[in-house]
Amino acid sequence: MRSTPLRRPWRRFLALLGTAGLALAGAVALPGTAQAANVLTNPGFESGALSPWSCTGNLGSVVSSPTHSGSKALTGAVSSSDNAQCSQTVSVRPNTAYALTGWVRGSYVYLGVDGGASTWTSSPSAYSRLSVSFTTGASQTSATIYVHGWYAQGAYQADDVSLDGPGGGDGTDTRAPTAPGGLTSTGRTSSSVSLSWNAATDDVGVTSYDVYSGSAKVLTVSGTAATVSGLSAGTGYTFTVKARDAAGNTSAASNSVSVTTSAGGGGGTGFKQAAPYLFEGWGDPPNVTTVMNATGVKWFTMAFVLDGGGCNPLWDGNRALAGGVDQSVVNQIRSAGGDIVPSFGGWQGSKLGANCSSAGALAGALQKVIDAYSLKAIDMDIENTDEFENEAVQARILTALKTVKANNPGLKTIVTFGTSTTGPTYYGNRLVEQARSLGADIDVFTIMPFDFGGGSDMYGNTVNATEGLKNKLKSTFGWDDATAYAHIGVSGMNGLSDQQENTTPAIWTSIRDWANSHHIARLAYWAVNRDRPCPGGGVVSNCSGISQSTWQFTSITAGFTG
Fold this sequence. Notes:
alpha/beta, ten-stranded mixed β-sheet, 27 strands
């Protein structure tokens, strides 16, 4: 949530973000003349199967039409939260020039090499040829070639992909890669287990990793993480991983790791919270006991803990944790049988995530607040260019949350961030992906579906945005629908938003009922300070700008049970 200005218009719609990224990606020089045969396997997908290509979110498939040549082609089913990237890793020679070409069809289709050059085109109705060149590094022995579409731009097709240049092997490679090390479980649900490991090494280059459950190979991936799905609830499994190189040599098995899947019921966190935002530094703060008695609400999300200087947590950056108005309100809430979750960050101000020098320093600041109030949960409201649109700061915040979660058994961690009407934006997707790669074990991913171009259909667009987040969580963590919903929060804005979107009591009731029926984890809104009528009053801090009953939105929110 944000303090004044109440919200800002969502300046970076997904389509605009895509356009900016595409303009940068298109400025790539064309390659020189190729000197050798295609080193890719299954370049035209004529085998009828994807292998050895792999596609994010299982969104790639082989189709019979439309093709560029032959009888098969690749199609990627792009969603609002996944660009359906399909890739293949091959052995290459160091300090060597390669020419990558391919035929693609669709809106905004990319072709490139991981960590290097790429190019793109928009050709919705006919195949178009893409071409890009690159030179391998001094010690580079493998390259990952990829093709993908763009978020919410529809399916794409690719065919006849070629990487011209010398292969990395000479037919005499008989040396197996080293065994992968450090295999560990990074997460589990009732039907899946997430794993990560350290990369293996090879004299030519590792091209893939095979994941085994017992003696059965269950998955092949190109990276050093995987999620094995389709498992039974409450069941023990033992996993190992082996590395393979381009010549087919297979390493010894990694260390084994044994994991028992969660019991049935969707593998959620068991955490349910109706917690509207309350801000003591703004908007004519109401008497909290009066609100609780009138509505039945028990939890509040208290805003905002900021940096008072030197990575020191203070309310609004200037009120002490102990002895002030905020401490008094916490005591009143708890005396009435409720509790609070503090929110760190917001739209503006000096934020701990951006200003603390390291994840360790940030974790120390969070711990001060946890200790001051004996907290059960904390919310990181990650917004604006200093935190949300800064990938290094995103990683710092997630790593700090991982640390305090490990140091405080039972603590629930929440991240809150903006959205588009169809699901997370680029930075929202990146936040989810970083949470997985860092093993942050976030309990609730909360989106803010307002100031997002919602227009007149705030119910429909809120549901669509939440479904987009659910799909992203599924594809990233390997969760089923129930588990993904159980890790989702929705935080709306009552009455008029900065974009004049109007969430009425009736619409908020429908959103709450949808949230209950889909068993999400958290329902909040900005803010209790505004939960008072003032029809025609505009977008202000102490009322909603519409006709409503006093504390009506809080009463509706209190009916959320998950």
